[in-house]
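Memo to structure team: turn this sequence into structure tokens by end of day. - J.P.
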Amino acid sequence: MSPRALLRALAQIAHKMGIEVREEPFSPLQRSRGGECRVMGRTVLLLDAELGHFDRACMVAEALKRRDLRGLSLPPHLRELIERGPRAPKLIPMDRLRPIAKARPRLRAEKLEPTVALP
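Reply from structure team:
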């Protein structure tokens, strides 16, 4: 699922839960990425429109995490994202890394000679 489609799906779920998702360009001087607030009795989730789709989707998922979603039927990948959050990339220890391809060692005669002509 693309980040744009993920954001759209999570925003629809938020709408069903009574959360209005609004994307507004924030000032560059503002340090906030957005957040949840109450405006005239309605729950509004403000997102910085300058953030990437995946970052905004993660913020919507974080807001949904605080809600009771047991009554909604959600696809398993969306439920997992909401409950666990985005997964960090799996780190492989340096001693377990293997080269992608083995390079053939060069013979002495194959070593490259400088091609710059000296005056």
